[in-house]
Prior knowledge:
8-stranded mixed beta sheet, 2 domains
Amino acid sequence: MSFYGPYLIRTRNIDVAWRSCINTIIEKGVKQTTEDKKQKTRETFCATIHLSDWQSGNIIPRDYIGLSEDMILENYIPQYLSSEKGEHAYTYGWCMRDRFKFNQLEYIKDQLSRGRSVSFAQLWNPATDMMSTNPPCINVVLFHKLNSKIHSTVYIRSNDMARAHPDDVTGVFTVFLTEVSSKFGGRRAMGTITTISGSAHIYETSINEIKRSSFGSISASNPNPKINEETLAGPILLKSNKLSGVLSELKKKFPKYSKPQGKDDLYLYIIFKLEEIDLKSKELIDEAERIVNGEGELGKRLRHYRAKTDEGKSVTIDQIKLAKRKLEKSTQSRRIIITPNNPWEKMYDLNPLIIQFLLRQNRLYTSALFADYLIKEIPLATYLIRSIQKEILDGNKSRLEPTAFFFMPTKNDSKTIDFSELFG
């Protein structure tokens, strides 16, 4: 059975989003067991939740079965604020502020102040996390300064949607987004937040607890006035699963839904699931293969990634080779992540930002996050991911499932979009 996803939930705040996501997983999630074989779950693929006005709702949903509001504010949020990890394997505050020996939030504020539209923090350390049994679940926190607002997109490799997702949103919004927005107008500058949960799952024990609660009996309407009136251009979920269809949809929808920023740029957040690359370009295929073979800056960062472990040991790793090895040994892992950008060297200019592989029942699911990416380069992005998949599946009998692509946001550098460059 194939996983359900990616899917998109758009609403004002966490209360409605949480209920919608839980219902989706209960109804359409695939039954799994955890990697240690100890717990049963239901899992979906790449749940994308866009909250347009988080501040106007509750911190946690009604009937939430996770931490109480007091526990989140008193015990969980301090872990986002502090640069210390204490006795924990990690905290998000430590990953953000000290893991790479500088404060990434300060770097982001500086980058946005200097005129960049998009800047992000990477919490994943390839030198340590691929082999760790307990790496960070939140991997990337991206900020997009669009006119007067700062919007945030968060990639979460593994998410317990019943007991953890609202906590993660609260932490990112109230600490990370608040801190970045403080440079640009404070609360008035705080915009939307979008989360992408690669493995969006709930445990069977949580399902029983939800059913015993009044989960479905209380109206999820929000009587509070809006705080954020500025909407984001997207995310939109494209219906096509072939590259030609994706480009055809973009030709219609990009001019219709995109939002201008400054004089020349248009932005749109898009998601699509690609099953078939039905357009052939030998030039782009060759370019993608050269990258996978280690050529150019992107290829070098994938094949010869220089970093330090959390213990301070300098290493150089071949991320594609390591991912291949992990797929062969860990058939249920949620920890197979590739990322070319390198906070150790303050390298934040390469796409894709992150690639995640999920192997389930001999089926390989892949998600790839791109940001501030030109629309005309989308075909190359699809060829690149397909070439990486081909490389890591070489000798593996697993079946390749559709790939989820996230362009959050996608940019066009002119108000006149020339789709003839996208194979006509």
